[in-house]
# Entry
Amino acid sequence: MIDPLSVIAGVVTTVLLPKALEKVGEKIGETAWDKSGEAIQNVHKTVQTKLQTMGTAGLLTRAEANPTEANRQVLQAEVLTHMQEDQDFASKLQELIQQMESQSPTVQVILEEIQVRGKVEIGNIKQVNNGQSNAQQTFGKNWQIDGDIKVGDVTQENRVV
# Structure
């Protein structure tokens, strides 16, 4: 069984790192990024404040400056230790992560990075999002065509529950 605190600590350390944030920012639209950006900043600020209080803020600085797997693991272990020792801190992070996840959009991409040489036929495509109002759907991105391509009907649906 996976320890929920470990999962949250892992999410936090991944989210805190600028390269991870840049990747998320590339994948989601500006409006959606603005909505989840505040929650991400709150997570960062909460962890930063805790680490400063405990005298270990250098771990965060190092992981942000050099986001290697080793630096992430050290930061994750430190955050996890503080979460296990301080239930208020753990609860605050859980709340912020849930807020962040609820504000982050679902990203659905179909047929990205296609290279066609010759002739290709793609059947009918239906892309459906069930339930999340801030979903972003993308079809046909970064295609390199050197030949013929035929695509059937494409349907994209957002079904908000």
In short: The longest strand covers residues 115-122. The two ends are 31 Å apart (CA to CA). The mean pLDDT is 77. The helical segments are 4-16, 18-27, 30-54, 57-65, 69-85, 87-103.
